Queue: 3 jobs
Job 1
Amino acid sequence: MKIIEFCDTTLRDGEQAPGNTMKPKDKLLIAKKLENIGVNVIEAGFPASSKEDFEAIKLISSHLKKATVCSFARCVEKDIDIANESTKGAKNRMLMIFYAISDIHLKNKYNTNRKDAMEKIKNSIRYSKQYFKRIKFGLEDATRADPKYLHQVINLLLNEGVDTIALGDTTGWITPLETFKLVKNVVYQVNGKVKISIHCHNDLGMATANTLSAIMAGVDEVDTTVNGIGERAGNTPFEEIVVSLVVRKDIFKRKINIKLNALMPLSELVYKIINRTPSHEKPIVGVNAFRHESGVHIDGIKKDPSTYEIFNPKKNWTQARIFIWKTFKQEMTC
């Protein structure tokens, strides 16, 4: 049975939202929790964006022992240089470079054309190889790119020897059926030569569904954030993918190496650091996720919890959920 790997981008994409700012010491706490819970790759930040991000990645690099520290960069030599400096102390490290490939971005953001974009991508990968043995290339807005051009860019990435190709649904635009078809075609094209990753946003509320569709279509890795935090409507929630793969293993038939009993403490830590609480109805970690009011439901739960609870919440999940609920009530009365 195939193992699904997790690349957590809570510390990079998750922070890129109003109010989600994290200090370097906070990022280290989260990174340690992520490593302990079994996350394979931790995208620690965008070091060229700020001095604090650089220091956070440097700090994380010096502490992690198992997980791969991934530093983020544009297709800009200075970005790549800074990413190298920020991760020099890491036991395991990787570079994540990205470039948008949809015509919307090429024309309106970069003011460039497809041919020149491919040249820039190629040169950036080659420049990166002087520093990094492992390179993940993120295709921003891949889901809105011309399929023929996407095919050409992937061939370029294969020829340049990247380790992982990340397909970005940057605007949360694609649907689950379209995701399955797109990923299936890409998986067929690469034929096991590189890992394929999926990076979804939640603008239309389909990030979890799209990520699960990508898993069914054969991706090797999924990009997620704790509690689904991130730009605009957020990213694919880590806890939702983990629990979905466990509860519906009959459908997905994938293994994961994630410690389930550490999910809720991790969720609590992230919410506490960014000074937020989950919505009551938030799947897995919301305060109402395992609370019932309807008499019919309560009667069923008393007789057999599986009538209305499709998985059994661990004891420490419940304790952490009660903590969040009490904190929320205290804030409301202040």
Job 2
Amino acid sequence: MFPARSLSLVLVAGLGLQAQAPFDGRIAEIEQVLNRHFRGPRADEARERSNQEIEAFNGRSKRANAELAEARAKMEQATAPGRTAFAELTKLDAELKASIPDGADKPGNAKYAVRIDARNAFAGKVNALNEAGQRAIAEFNALAAKTKAELDNERTQIMANQEAINLRVQDFEKFVKSGEDIAFFVRVNRLLAEVRTALRKAEGPELTASLSKVRAIRRELGQWAIAGQSLNPKGLIVVEAQVQDEPCWLIVDTGATETILSQEIADAIGLGGAQAESVSLIVVGGLRLQGRHFTIPKLTTLGQTLANVSAAAVRPADVGIDGLLGQSFLKSFSYTIDKRKPEKLFLIAN
């Protein structure tokens, strides 16, 4: 048993703790996956940006080499007089060495002394020219070293970026190949269903905040999916829809007989329970699926609303996608598809 004073300290410390919202831990785990795989530039965008960086670097490298070649030519021009003068001095020294007069030849020695003085004066000019040449060489070497360091640093950074992109792509490919992407999206939608079920039983600020967070995550995934399809020339058309009061992202499938939602979304909205009738569905490519039939009281997309839309609940089709917008909705409108335009699908009420 704690003494009275110790117990008092324990109780006071306990008063400072705040209860964690019931879904905060799971939301935090989902955020970690978002940060790892879905946030930041898309891999294809990052690779394109990296390719542009490489192209720009190659251009700068080419210009830098041209500038160095020009600087070298100027350096060679600046050192040429010194080299020419030194060659002349070397030739003169050889001539002087070969024509040293006899010590007894006073007139010859006097003339030779004059030649030596002229040689020394010329040597001073040679030294001055050589010093100017050395300065030109030093300036060129400094420019060459600076240019090389800058290009090397930029090359290293580009290679690091390339490696990071490759690792990210490999990580995401592993994520998809193992089926973790589908499992992750199901987890997000299952969390949405559980939060909404809890809110139907008892409303509260913590649950309302959790719903807002989950909806924000789903919107982020929906926009991620739309962006991915837009980058693909053969990409699917994805639209945002309001299914009852829940924002959803649906693939437009003119070949689907029914509008289809994932079971988790149907559960979140409170539709398509286990007692619903089992139905066989035909989707794009003639693929048949088994689902549970239900009716969506209200579905809104692209400014058009339809009541009592026949639908079915099935397993999710893709990451960021909640289902298919099929003929049970589309047949009530005149619609056109133009993939050249941002919205792509256009609806007109019949």
Job 3
Amino acid sequence: MCNCETNKYWDLFEDVMKNYTGAQSQLIPLLQKLQETYGYLPRDVIEKLSEKTGIFVSQIMGVVTFYSQFRLQPIGKNIVRICFGTACHVVGAENIADSICRELGIELGGTTEDKMFTVESVACIGCCSLAPAVMINDETHGRLTPDSARKVIKDFKSENS
């Protein structure tokens, strides 16, 4: 009896690996493609990558944990990016982050249980004139207060439920 979900899961892996030539320099592009495929880098995928490439799991994990682009946990459907650039930091980014995280019931960097939201801190979103600012997916919200930040999250939830 075959588990079709499991077969599809590993078929995706094999599809990514089909162009692997054996060069260690391909590790980062492979990790990027695997993350694009799975949404994050599952532990079993990292172990299989180690088997296929001959690169130790510890070496792969060293790369994965060094670069902030890689994720070891699934992310939410909606990404809330809180700007911590200088302009936003000076006018209260920390308070905005606290407010949003309390509203969603998670910590900064976390994902809600229902996988609807992940909250990330970012160095800059390029909207200094709107400080403090956040982005939800590709939509920017600026000149926030802790109360207006909570309202943005509540409104987004109700519009997208």
